[in-house]
Amino acid sequence: MKYSGYYLLFTGVIHNIIGLLLGWPVLMDMHRDVWFASTIVNGEMQFDREAIIWFLNAGCFWIMFGWTLQKAINQGFTPPRSLGWGFAIIGVINVIILPVSGAYLFIIQGGILIYGVSNRKRLDAKVHQKT
Question: Domain ranges in the chain?
Answer without folding.
Answer: 1-66, 78-131
